[in-house]
UniProtKB/TrEMBL annotation:
The active site is at K52, S130, S154. This is Glutamyl-tRNA(Gln) amidotransferase subunit A. It comes from Pseudotabrizicola sediminis. Belongs to the amidase family. GatA subfamily. Residues 1-447 form the Amidase domain. It catalyses: L-glutamyl-tRNA(Gln) + L-glutamine + ATP + H2O = L-glutaminyl-tRNA(Gln) + L-glutamate + ADP + phosphate + H(+). Heterotrimer of A, B and C subunits. Signal peptide: none annotated. Keywords: ATP-binding, Ligase, Nucleotide-binding, Protein biosynthesis. Its EC number is 6.3.5.7.
Length: 454
């Protein structure tokens, strides 16, 4: 803990930690020492971790990267962080992220972006998003592990950009209670760690049914770490032809081939498959996620949480609401609220939102068919490129930024678990990651498949 507290201060240039909690860390570290001395050694005893700013940690600023939550200190603790502290983990502080988890570069954060610790030239590179602070902090050894959340790739894309491991569990495996909501039918929390083994241990600590989240599954939590045998002989690994995009960089194609080779060497069989509706995943996601977000974000009204705009003489409740939201939400969040409100409006509901829901069902069906045909896991790239420079994407056209999510959003729509693992460097020397997609509730097997790629 002391070493991490020092590293955290030295790592300020990365802008990864946005609120540090050294007093809490020392208090928890002492408690962990006492537990160890008493012969009690829970799975994360004394392990210093960072927490994405999206999780409510009691008494600690929780802003979701937004000005509208400035000054908000929750009176409650999220289920996931409660479980971490029960498992003996030590809280170092809150980690930078895109505002309300909307973004792929960390640039929509009200704190300014976190910076990728990997550096190959004069540029400052993005750590990815939205859990970019979490990925940067783990990659730079500021903490041993971090919590992220993944609605459309926000754990896996930053993990790939920073050369670490990140797993998005099956929807319902981890409780969403106490996590600031972005798109409730897609959001899941998960670990971001240096190794697959660390991810298995941390996932075990945060998983499980929670009566406070009606979508959390009443399933027993397997021993994820015990599943890491490296034995994948006879397993069938699917390669979806729809992921072989036109104009895919040769480096990404070569990385994918290398992943296939590694799995073949371990005794798995590589099988070509088709996910015919995968090409609709990105537009479907960018209808459903903003629709849910526009509803979830309606609660920031200047009364209940954080920021309230200064009002002029004669202003009423409508002006308070409008001014507060105009000041508090950044441009990307406002864009999502407008898009979401539009697709939910009476005249356009059937054309957009309802149609997207139907396509989502077809996307899910594609995966069900692949798994029913005996596929054990699907291997794909995690991102279409390595980390890009801050300020280099999405400036003129937000859709350019959305294209980063082309490999990651599909499985969120289907509720499936996915993991990103670092598998080498590109020609510039920047990390690249591969992604594995697993059957629902089979995170243990998924982690074991990923273990082979490590
Ligand atoms: N980049 C995607 C978005 O902006 C995914 C974000 C996420 O997974 N939270 O919506």
């Amino acid at each position: 803990t002391m070493a991490c507290l020092t590293a955290m201060d030295a790592g300020d240039v990365l802008n990864a930690f946005v609120h540090k909690t050294p007093e809490l860390a020392l208090e928890q570290a002492r408690a962990a020492d006492a537990r160890l001395a008493g012969g009690d050694a829970p799975s994360l005893c004394g392990i210093p971790v960072g927490v994405k700013d999206l999780f409510a940690v009691k008494g600690v600023p929780t802003q979701a990267g937004s000005n509208i939550l400035r000054g908000f200190r929750p009176e409650y603790e999220s289920t996931v962080t409660t479980k971490l502290w029960e498992a003996g983990a030590v809280c170092l502080g809150k980690l930078n992220m895109d505002e309300f988890a909307m973004g792929s570069s960390n640039e929509s954060s009200c704190y300014g972006p976190a910076v990728n610790p990997w550096k190959v030239d004069d540029r400052r590179l993005t750590p990815g998003g939205s859990s970019g602070g979490s990925a940067a902090a783990v990659a730079a050894d500021l903490c041993l592990a971090a919590l992220g959340t993944d609605t459309g790739g926000s754990i896996r894309q930053p993990a790939a950009f920073c050369g670490i491991t990140g797993i998005k569990p099956t929807y319902g495996r981890v409780s969403r209670w106490g996590i600031v909501a972005y798109a409730s039918s897609l959001d899941q929390a998960g670990p971001m760690t240096r190794t697959v083994r660390d991810a298995a241990i941390m996932l075990g600590a945060i998983s499980g049914h929670d009566a406070k989240d009606s979508t959390s599954a009443e399933l027993a939590v397997p021993d994820f770490e015990a599943a890491l045998t490296g034995d994948i002989r006879g397993k069938k690994i699917g390669i979806a032809r729809e992921y072989r995009l036109d104009g895919m960089p040769t480096e990404i194609a070569a990385l994918w081939d290398r992943g296939m080779e590694m799995m073949r060497d371990a005794g798995a069989e590589i099988v070509d498959i088709s996910l015919p509706h995968a090409k609709y995943a990105l537009p479907t996601y960018y209808i459903i996620a903003p629709a849910e977000a526009s509803s979830n974000l309606a609660r920031y009204d200047g009364v209940r949480y954080g920021h309230r705009a200064k009002l002029a003489q004669g202003d009423g409740i409508t002006e308070m609401y409008e001014k507060t939201r105009a000041e508090g939400f950044g441009p990307e969040v406002q864009r999502r609220i407008m898009a979401g409100t539009y697709v939910l409006s009476a005249g356009f509901y059937d054309a957009y939102y309802n149609r997207a829901r139907k396509v989502r069902a077809l996307i899910k069906c594609d995966f069900e068919q692949a798994f029913a045909a005996g596929i054990d896991a699907i291997l794909a790239p995690a991102t279409p490129s390595s980390a890009f420079g801050l300020g280099e994407q999405g400036g003129a056209d937000p859709v350019e930024m959305y294209l980063n999510d082309v490999f990651t959003v599909t499985l969120n729509l289907a509720g499936l678990p996915g993991i990103a693992v670092p598998v080498g460097l590109d020609a510039k020397g920047l990390p690249l990651g591969l992604q594995l997609i697993g059957r629902p509730w089979e995170e243990a097997e998924l982690l074991n498949h990923a273990y082979v790629l490590e």
